Amino acid sequence: MIKKYAVSNHSQVGAHFDDKASISFNMDLLKHIGKVVFPYGLIAPSMMIFLIFMIYPILYMIYLSFQKWNMLSDKVFIGVQNYDKLFVDPDFYQVMITTVKFMVGTVSVSVVLALLLALYLNQNTAINRFLQGVIFAPYIVSLVSIAFIFMWMMDSDLGLLNYILNLLHLPTVRWLEDPKVAIYALVLVNIWKGVGYYTIIFISAFQSIPPYLYEAAKLDKSNRYRTFFKITLPMISPTLFFITLTGIIGGLKVFETINIMTMGSNNTNTLVYSLYQYGFSFHKIGYASAIGVVLMVIIGTVTFFYFNTLSKRVHYR
Amino acid sequence: MYKIELVGIDKAYEKDLQVIDNLNLKIEEGSFTILVGPSGCGKSTTLRMIAGLEQESDGEIFISGKSMHNIEPGDRDIAMVFQNYALYPTMTVRDNIEFGLKNNKIPKVERNQRIQEICDILGISEYLARKPQSLSGGQRQRVALARAMVKKPSVFLMDEPLSNLDAKLRNQIRTELIELHRKLKTTFVYVTHDQVEALSMGTHIVLLNKGKIMQQGPPLEIYNDPQNIFTAQFIGSPPMNILHAKDFSYLDGFDERVEYVGFRPEHGQISKIRSVNPSQEGLELAGQINTYEILGSEILYKIETKYGSINLKTFDMREVYEGRVSILISNDKLCYFDRDENRIYEKAVPRDQKICS
């Protein structure tokens, strides 16, 4: 486009200067620039928000991870010392293992349980509609309240869970105090909160499968299990993929439950909680930022591989 | 022996919503039976009950002499082609065709052989690795057929399989289906609302209305010898012209029961002058041509007469009539119906020919 204008201008210069042509040429150029710039102008506001609240903090976190800073002192550039310390710290690996345990436990049990519940609640009867509402309820309750209620229920001496175990003459469990059990107790709370949400999404995915596919399967003499694994599951694969991915990311970023129920004690310290501790309890901002960067890289890598390996097997309509 | 027998079938979705009322139907082995009727007449429901996808409220269905009560669709030795093909979108064409075979535990060698055979017949071998959504409507239709054929069922059930195709493809696949039926010599039960499909494909037509059989028989019999006004008007395009017999003085004293008189659009002879052929006896009407449509090999006229509007079809392409015309329908082409719209078969010979204008 630009080239065309230039050529036409040149030829006009050759055949005496023409005022009118020059003006129209300038107007054309302005119009052209306007056309190019206008769309960027339109997306500018949202881009600004995105840059200020998403990109800038990430870059600033990366910058901070190379500094020594306690929020009062001057920032001192110390290179990769924060990372050096992080990678030789045995606690860090413990935190990583705990995080993965939490994530895998929550996602796998939630997804399988939600699938089973969704299969059960799929029939549109009055009682099922009621149960769908019931099962979804924990999702709309604040996680903080849930955490407090579960803390009370999981109390070793006065809690409801141990009371029930006692009634059944079963050995009691020190839910939140036993380092072997505590993280799974937290997993339980998160499953309880999230499973209803997953279930509702699965039910809606099931209901988007056209019924004639099941009729065709019946005529093809497909039994229940084959129908589920060969038709239902592939048909909801986009939903399954999305739910699992967001579950994995959410699991890696868990914070509130731990902050309220155990404060990271008894082997329940996860990446985000230890980041919070280093940042806001010990005021080691640089070190905390380094943890943040590691978390970001882990989530990025997991997401990348997840997309690359599984998205080919997902059926999008 | 009949291949499929429906004995006293009732179907009601709700208490007051009787879709099918005491249906008795016998489908002969090797026939191409068409269930045809307007939408909501229960033809699809009937087919789905034969398939076992719908439970009959009362009565019994027999396939190959065996009662189908509580027998799963997969165990009925049938295959069905759906209107929207119902291909499994997550599977390749090959997996779609193979799914039923695998479920029936047919060994791999035979599976491959059958798939190869069917795909050669239908010309879909090159799409085997593709997913259904990358195929055109006609190709999908063929895959759906292949999926049904590969099971080698004793009955094919088809629920309006051509209605999602464009007109040209529909004609093509219609011909292919007729050939297929000749080749396979299996029983086909085919549901359609299109009387052209019914007439052109069927060896036996069952015309349904409001859950009841109006008439059944071979296509020509249904067309030439309608037993009631519904059949006369549903089969044939344009429908049979039906006029109130009492309007015609020439039928006076003929048969008290005659309420309606009808004739097919192609049986009326049209002419400018009164009485086309005075020696021929028949009903003569005068009218004003409203519209005409030239369809290439025939012309359709819509003519306004004193007794109502009538359709006329001529194959005489030499002249297009306009304005006032007279129409003669010879006596042997007239059909008489009683008050309940049922045919009266007694030879109807009017006392003498009169011109009704």
TrEMBL record, chain B:
<keyword id="KW-0067">ATP-binding</keyword>
<keyword id="KW-0547">Nucleotide-binding</keyword>
<dbReference type="InterPro" id="IPR008995">
    <property type="entry name" value="Mo/tungstate-bd_C_term_dom"/>
</dbReference>
<dbReference type="InterPro" id="IPR015855">
    <property type="entry name" value="ABC_transpr_MalK-like"/>
</dbReference>
<dbReference type="InterPro" id="IPR003439">
    <property type="entry name" value="ABC_transporter-like_ATP-bd"/>
</dbReference>
<dbReference type="Pfam" id="PF00005">
    <property type="entry name" value="ABC_tran"/>
</dbReference>
<dbReference type="InterPro" id="IPR047641">
    <property type="entry name" value="ABC_transpr_MalK/UgpC-like"/>
</dbReference>
<dbReference type="InterPro" id="IPR012340">
    <property type="entry name" value="NA-bd_OB-fold"/>
</dbReference>
<keyword id="KW-1003">Cell membrane</keyword>
<feature type="domain" description="ABC transporter">
    <location>
        <begin position="4"/>
        <end position="235"/>
    </location>
</feature>
<keyword id="KW-1278">Translocase</keyword>
<dbReference type="GO" id="GO:0005524">
    <property type="term" value="F:ATP binding"/>
</dbReference>
<dbReference type="InterPro" id="IPR003593">
    <property type="entry name" value="AAA+_ATPase"/>
</dbReference>
<dbReference type="InterPro" id="IPR017871">
    <property type="entry name" value="ABC_transporter-like_CS"/>
</dbReference>
<dbReference type="InterPro" id="IPR027417">
    <property type="entry name" value="P-loop_NTPase"/>
</dbReference>
<keyword id="KW-0813">Transport</keyword>
<keyword id="KW-0472">Membrane</keyword>
<protein>
    <submittedName>
        <fullName>ABC transporter ATP-binding protein</fullName>
    </submittedName>
</protein>
